[in-house]
Amino acid sequence: MQADELTIRTIKSRARATQRRDAHRRAVLAVIIAATRAALMATGRPFVIENVPGAPLLNPLQLCGTMFGLRVIRHRLFEIWPEPIWFPPSPCCHDGKDTGAGNRQPGKTNGFATGHSYITVVGNSYLIADGKSAMGIDWMVRRELSQAIPPAYTEWIGRQLLQRVQEAPAP
User: Fold this and answer.
1) What is the pLDDT of residue 3?
2) How many beta carbons lie within 10 A of that of residue 109, not counting itself?
3) Which residues touch 3 (CB under 8 Å, ≥6 apart)?
4) What dihedral do alpha carbons 36, 38, 40, 42 form, nearest 10°?
């Protein structure tokens, strides 16, 4: 067996292992979300479950920072019960250059100062000052910011839910 053939077999084997691991993670996530949903529904109160695109949420609403005039590309899904919200505040619009992790170049710093219109706030692929500005959050450190939901999302969803609760007929 030649080195190239061995390398190809190793790569294929690792790819299959990664696929199995990812499938297992998706299955575990589905169980966790279903259990969370059931517990929340049992309360009889309105609720919101947030997760990333691809998560097994029911009738999710997808929000992005660009819908709120933010300079961050941060897609998040929201399952809202008892009545889904179908229409986001405005369209998602990523016109312009972004600093996504795939655009990061070793030894170079990408950000608003280098002509980028938007940033993606993940891992270490952004300048902390740009991340805080883009997400409308000035009190977090990088580790927290990389996992955060922009306050504009939760404020908008909260206002929508409050309005629906106030408009609902009394029991």
Assistant:
1) 61
2) 12
3) none
4) -150
